[in-house]
Write a structure and sequence with these properties.
The complex is a heterodimer of chains A (273) and B (192). Chain A is of the alpha/beta class and 273 residues long. Chain A has 9 helices and 10 strands. In chain A, α1 packs parallel to α3 (48-57). The chains are: A alpha/beta (273), B alpha/beta (192). The structure holds S-adenosylmethionine. Residues 70-75, 78, 106-108, 112, 135-137, 140, 197-199, 213-215, 218, 244 of chain A line the site of S-adenosylmethionine (SAM). Chain A: Residues 1-262 form the CheR-type methyltransferase domain.
């Protein structure tokens, strides 16, 4: 069940760091081990030694390695109540700014970003917003840019949209072509898709809202702390931070700077610097 | 690297909620092991389930949060829509990757992860269900020297899941519902 052993995972991750500067050494080990074993059997390596040789000597393989060991599963309007809270409690505050900057960190294939753009459009704020959507994996960013998602998911997304307080016809936001739904380009005119590695890259702007959901679960405590510090530094005073439904600021070094806006939702406001 | 704590993991699908509710009052308080429960369920039932379980036992019942540390005498419920993994330092991780056996959480994922770390200090129990999720996981538990038990398919509301496990082999014990809690209590006493 585990062709690649725990010690060998460590060896591979060190190679990745040493040869290419990709630092996965502070990721949660259990998930890493699953992903690396999955890749090992998917690419049919006869032995760990050959797997390692490929990683160390074939830079072209690294792109594929990063794409496969990161988990890119995502959805539109996932956890509708989170989006409802954004609509009700966050966007009205952001509306008071002349100019709104939002950062989606770990945006994967962009479903979350299009969801946000729809919220902004419906609040009549899209024209004065800029969304930075970043991920470590450049292949998912390419997909996100296209805004083309499987049509089979639209029924679920439409239900999520309605549960998030959406009152329009969801299907007006995309055009259906064969098995795909292409989202209107007007939605992503104000979106900048760019690679950014939360482990090694620093802050690049100040935002009023940062959303990073289901990324921290892959990091160990130390790395979570480091990344939360990066978010804190990248937020304006009174800016908002949105995390995944099972993630928390509790027990972290940054917590005292934040106040959770609603007990049930994973949205915090930065109240001190 | 084996964990010093002993662990019980319970997986269930259709027809297993009732079994758990009957089993919980029979658990010893305090209990020397940690218990993890992975249930296939709809995502909205969250806190309802915790309340329901808590009303049947004086052991602490909690839904797993990111990086929770396993403590003896505590019952951990896997949250909906995430896989639950175990770390070698005794903490729990959540994972939002593809569904396995059309399920997230997948019982196989948690059983296999626990098998690797807990070896013979693990008891895995598979309850009623209509899906084969958990069967491969039990195989891993068996291979790593852990104890494997299933609910008797004949008394399960949906027999498919435990039946598949029995056919695969490697099952140490077939349990009636009323035997489950005593079996866990005994496991806790002998592996402590
Ligand atoms: C499970 S997806 C979450 C997608 C979306 N935010 C959601 O909640 O539905 C995790 C994403 O985090 C990205 N990621 C992992 N490590 C990263 C890092 N060090 N820097 C930036 N993004 C990272 C992965 O490539 C993946 O797209």
């Amino acid at each position: 069940m585990n062709a690649v052993k725990e010690e060998e995972i460590g060896v591979l991750l060190n190679d990745m760091l040493e040869c290419y500067g990709y630092d996965f050494t502070d990721y949660s080990l259990a998930s890493m081990q699953r992903r690396i074993n999955r890749l090992f059997s998917m690419d049919r390596f006869p032995s760990f030694a050959e797997f390692r040789y490929r990683v160390r000597n074939d830079p072209a393989y690294i792109q594929h390695f990063v794409e496969e060991i990161t988990v890119n599963v995502t959805e539109m309007f996932r956890d509708p109540s989170f989006y409802l809270a954004l609509r009700k409690q966050v966007l009205p505050m952001l509306a008071t700014y002349p100019f709104i900057r939002i950062w989606h960190a770990g945006c994967s294939t962009g479903e979350e970003v299009y969801s946000m753009a729809i919220l902004l459009q419906e609040a009549n704020l899209l024209h004065k917003s800029v969304i930075y959507a970043t991920d470590i994996n450049t292949a998912v960013l390419e997909k996100a840019r296209k805004g083309i998602f499987p049509i089979a998911n639209m029924q679920q997304y439409s239900q999520n949209y309605i549960a998030s307080g959406g009152q329009h016809d969801f299907s007006a936001y995309y055009s259906a072509k064969y098995d795909y739904a292409k989202f209107n380009e007007s939605l992503c005119r104000k979106v900048i898709f760019a690679p950014h590695n939360l482990v090694t890259d620093g802050s690049f702007n100040e935002f009023q809202l940062i959303i990073c959901r289901n990324v921290l679960i892959y990091f160990n405590k130390d790395l979570q702390d480091k990344v939360l510090k990066l978010f804190s530094e990248s937020l304006e005073q009174l800016g908002y931070l949105g995390l995944g439904s099972k993630e928390t600021l509790k027990f972290t070094a940054e917590v005292h700077k934040f106040r959770q806006i609603d007990k049930r939702e994973k949205i915090w406001r930065k109240v001190s610097i | 690297m084996m964990n010093p704590l002993s662990l019980v993991v319970i997986g269930g699908s259709a027809g297993s909620l009732e079994v758990l509710l009957q089993m919980l009052p029979g658990l010893d308080v305090p209990l020397a092991v940690a218990i993890i429960i992975v249930l296939h369920r709809k995502s909205y039932a969250d806190s309802v389930l915790i309340d329901l379980f808590s009303s049947r036992t004086r052991l602490l019942v909690k839904e797993v949060e990111e990086k929770d540390l396993l403590q003896p005498g505590t019952i951990y419920l896997a949250p909906p829509d995430y896989h639950l993994l175990l770390e070698s330092n005794g903490s729990l991780s959540l994972d939002y990757s593809e569904k396995i056996n059309f399920s997230r959480p997948s019982i196989d994922v948690t059983f296999s992860s626990a098998a690797r770390l807990y070896g013979p200090r693990l008891l895995a129990i598979l309850l009623s269900g209509a899906n084969a999720d958990g069967v491969l996981g039990l195989h891993h538990v068996h291979k790593m020297g852990g104890m494997v038990a299933v609910q008797d398919p004949n008394s399960a509301e949906v027999r498919y899941m435990p039946q598949q496990a029995v056919e695969q082999g490697g099952v140490d014990k077939i349990l009636q519902v009323k035997e489950i809690a005593p079996f866990i209590n005994k496991f806790a006493a002998v592996t402590r």
